[in-house]
Amino acid sequence: MALLSSCKRDGSYERPWTRVHSLGKGEAHQTVRFRILEFEYFNILSAGAAELRALNDLAQIIWRKAMADPNEVPVLPDEILLDEESAEDNRPPFQPASRIPIDPVFRQPFVLRSLKHGAYFLQWKPKNSPWTRYNGTMRVERHGLSTTASGDLYTHSAYTFTSWPTFRIIPNPDPSPSAGIPIFSRSRYRYYLRVTQILQWYTFGNSFTMRFERFRFDSTTNTWSNEGLHSAVMTFKSAPAGYPAGATYLEGDLKSPAGVDLGTISMGWVSRYLRKATIEIDRVSASDYPAGNGAGATWQSVFEDVDWDVNAYSSDTNLTEPSGQFWSNAEMHSAMLARRDSANLDNEWRYHLLCVRRLDATSRGIMYDNSGTDSNNIPREGAGISSHWVIPSTAQWGTVQGQQFGDATGPYFRTAVHEIGHAMGLYHNSSDNGFMHTTGQIAASPGVFPSNIQWSFNAADAKRLRHMPDPWVRPGMIPFGSSYSSAPISDDEAMDLNGPLELKVEPLMDAVPIGAPVRVKVTLTNHSDSAMEVPDSLSLKSEHVSGRIVDPAATVRGFQSVMKCVEEHAHEVLKPGASMSADLTLLRGRDGALFPAPGLHKIVVDVCWEMNGMAVKVSGKDSVMVTHVEDNAHAVAAKAALTEPDLLLTLAIGGDHLEEGNRALDAAMESDVLAPHYALVKAKQVGRRFGKRKGNAVAAVKALGNNPVVSTSEARRVAEMVKGTTNAALKKSGGSGLAKKLKSVANGDKMVASLVDSMS
Amino acid sequence: MILAVAASAATVFASAPAEAHWRGHVMDRDLLSGVWVRSAGEACAEAYPERIEMQDLGIYAAPGAVDAGKLWHSGDWELEGGVLKMQAANDAMLPYRIAALSGGEMVLLDADGCRIVYRKA
After folding, report:
1. What is the ipTM for the molecules in this complex?
2. In chain B, which residue's Cα lies nearest the Cα of A431?
3. At residue A508, does pLDDT exceed 70?
4. Domains (ranges, CATH) in chain A?
5. Which of A414, A447, A566, A634 shows the smallest number of beta carbons within 10 Å?
6. Contact with chain A for residue B33, Cβ under 8 A
């Protein structure tokens, strides 16, 4: 993406610094202000390091021009401070503390802020509850242009009361942020936070809205209950003492779904990893230590890929075989209890791996500690692998057939990771040849075993390791075997098909007045050489379509269908070069009005569906400018439109029964500014039958006025609606302005052309 | 649903009918290969996938079984006399006595005596 590119509709762009030299100082100053702070805002947000350096260069040029004659232009000023990035952060590097002069209107220095990837110490201090607070971790995963986040909270008693004879109150300290990712007692687990909104990329502001669904955990039934969407405006602050240098730290007031103040919530960065664990590996002397695959993959590297800080180490190497080379599950469990170096799962996440010659229950490996019905009733602590199983001498086993398993370095290590994966709550995954696929299936798959092993976790499993609730992945909590669907988890990412497919997002108008709905045409085109299965509709009613609006303050508001799933949604085949399109009308989302303030709004539309059992997604984006209130009537109408939730239902389904929504619609129609934008909605409302009331085509045409905002497909719907109405009635009700407008959008549609003729 | 996959092979063998009953039988692996769909039956059989695809290489897949929290997801199968071993979710090879097997129907008995009926798709 080009930084500072002009937002031309034809897709071209220009690099404005190429013409800055020819501008006067005032013009240049206005140019940089205009471009940096308004129109180019979102390009900056998604720019790469080179492009930000170009921004710096541009600003330096402007600054030098301005400083040449300080009397001629406003004093250029303050600075944009690009947030200092951690050297460990693998996002595009930014120049720290780059100084960019900027308009004096903005007196505060601008800081380009972002959330660091990693684990944050999370703390919620409930209002009016000085004795109890909730401590936990927030995991912020930065990937590409987006962020996935989740958190867990555990109760924390702020004080301990000693009993007679001392009766003292002793404060219980919070975990030290300098110690990295904190570990909490399992019995104190309370909440999983499924983050639905968070700062996605960068912001010039000092705060952003974070929203999350709070799931309460019932440890007696291992079930979750959703306590609704909570929110907090999180503000960047200086990290208190104890945090790592340069740590991102935020605070905000937590609001319940009903908007009740629940106290303060804070989060401070403590580690570039999301989770940490220890894997202790004990073995009998004859068994091999599974250190890695012999080609670079080790415990550390494998888990580094999923943002786990894993300390795997070889401990005892002289375990005694209780009954010959074969070990039962009970014998392995007993050996784990007897020989592991530490047993406090409330202080660390410790998994135990036992390497023995042979296993009773299976050939290669087993996560024997599944149900917690063993001697210590604690599930998912340990697994075992077999070093002396002999790989069958059949072709499917490729280059390792006939080998003793421990000598087949790669497959042996893979099985060890696979079993620990089970201990971390993962199940088999046949989507690829990653760690959680079964060895036998991989051997039977195309390619030569073991070179066809994929040395990573499948993306879905990687996400589970990063974002499944703590009780699911940490040892000693939820038993192995519960369905994945029983656990909350942050939104899935689907495979990105942008490239072979393109989703073009085109607002019907470049600018709309505040309070108006935004009409967007979305077009899906297949640029690949093969036919692709796609949703049969791009309408918001199809449930395949969702998206988000990013306002000028970088607040993200999501939207999706207001219609519930009432039937199976069919797919259709999109041939190479073919396109399909639909019109979307955007007004409100789950977080309220989508365009609540003047300024440039970025529109991102996602289309998600399943293709051959895999979740796939294609996205497109554009922007629309929302203009200021123009007069008093507009202000009244805009207020009604922006605050009435039922107006969305009036837009989506119409009907006379939505009294509040219809009142807001009528208020909008009272404003000369908003009326053209709502005219079609009003026309559909009166033109269609509702209950015993008949549709009134003449009233519908009258409602459209002279210059309604309509697309080609909407014009056709108007034509269909008034079909059968006499020419005389149409002439009487519709003005020449309307006929002219419909003609301009007819785009060859015969039915619309016929309507225009009838009105002329 | 919590899966009961703790049973060891030894335990199950002990509860299986006398092995002599099966002596002399040679199960045809070809009969096991193919797509099997579970028939409505005992409630205990709900722990098993609706559909399994068994290949003669000794591997099987049960589409959708992970999300449904079933006992078998995918993995190996082995035939030992009259006992079919299936790789369970935690990699244990769980044994099932084959009570009946024909080209069109397979009846398995698990360690607890639960009767699981599959029919060829």
Report:
1. 0.79
2. B63
3. yes
4. 17-112 (no CATH), 118-271 (2.40.128.120), 276-486 (3.40.390.10), 495-627 (2.60.40.10), 632-759 (no CATH)
5. A566
6. no
